[in-house]
Amino acid sequence: MAIRKLTKVGAVEMLKTANLAFGDELEVEFKGEEIILRKNKNVKLPKGVDAEFMEMLSDVIKEHDEAFKGLVDR
């Protein structure tokens, strides 16, 4: 188990490990002193956007991940 302080800079590693990204919707569950976060699986797509398009977009993003990361610093 890792204990981390949640900051924008330090959170990137945790988000990748959990397959999360900034802007994702999370389910929050409280169990005593624990807080459990889960990615919301019931995401509603905008009108006119279907799941097939989102899957294709996801594939393109994964394929060009390094190029997109390089654009961040520009």
Number of strands: 2
Radius of gyration, CA atoms, in whole angstroms: 15 Å
Q: What order do the SSEs take from the amino end to the carboxyl end, as H and E?
A: HEEHH
Distance between the termini: 35 Å
Can you walk me through this structure?
With 74 residues, the protein is α+β, with helices and mostly antiparallel strands. It is 42% helix and 16% strand. It has helices at residues 8-17, 51-63, 65-72, and strands at residues 26-31, 34-39. The chain has a two-stranded antiparallel sheet. Strand 1 and strand 2 form a beta hairpin. It is flat. The relative contact order is 0.08. The mean pLDDT is 80.
What is the element layout, followed by pairings?
Blueprint (H helix, E strand, L loop, with lengths): L7 H10 L8 E6 L2 E6 L11 H13 L1 H8 L2
Antiparallel strand pairs: 1-2
List its traits:
flat, two-stranded antiparallel ribbon, alpha+beta, 2 strands, about 70 residues
Summarize the structure.
The chain has 74 residues and is α+β, with helices and mostly antiparallel strands. The chain is built from three helices and two strands, in the order αββαα.
